[in-house]
Amino acid sequence: MLPFDSHVHTYYSPCARGVDQSTNPVASPQRYFQRAEEIGLRAMIFTDHFVEDPTLPGLVLFYKSSGKAILRDLRLELERLSDTQVCDVFIGCETETLSTEWVGVSEATARELDFVLVPTTHYHLPGVPQPASMAPRDVAAHMLLMLESVVQKPWLDSVAHPFSEPETVIGDLRAIYDAMDKARLRDVLGLAARNGVALEVNGSSLTAPNYAAIYREIVALAKSLGVRFTYGSDAHDSANLGMTQAAEAWIADSGLTPEDFLTPQMLRAKRG
Ligand SMILES: [Zn+2]
Ligand SMILES: [Zn+2]
What is the pTM of this model? Predict the structure, then answer.
């Protein structure tokens, strides 16, 4: 349905260093090129976990091996592979919301990238801003607070897997959604629409049943308010590149059409 994938981790992400039975890395750019050819993908955006200054004392530990070096290395590696490139390849990142005022990428650095994807619910990472408690009302309020902090920055492109986090961390997502202030949700989504910050449809998150049901309702509201969307598999292994049949069915059920999605080319064009 959508011949692109805008959320792909290579082995420049610390959590994408898996190997196959022959100990070859499963998330090398080369493997992604092979898989893209197999499934007929036309474009992909590499979005490794990235904050631009990993030297800041007290920074979330997960990002300590991040920084501009990984983007430079990925670029160099892609240049070396340019003969084998089978589809359009873009370089973006998945950064982090470090506080309501601070995301891991500055506006100037964002301009050097094709795409900046910002998660707001990485509650499993120690040091990332947390709700006051894991009571549904507190989680709901915190999710909206962090989402609002991102969509008020028009230079950010899309929110990664909005409202998604394992229920082993946050508890029952249905209870959280029931406790959510819906007027405030509408306001935040309206702000996203006005500022041109998209919401991601994340193929990996949709495999959680509660999430799939709740996010369908949120997406319908967002679309009615003029929000645009990006699609990403969130692959950490080339085998998971692209769109699954389940994700395709979910998108069709949710009333989204291909025109609701920003393509990698459109995201790059935003840079002017
Ligand atoms: Zn993420
Ligand atoms: Zn990711």
Answer: 0.97
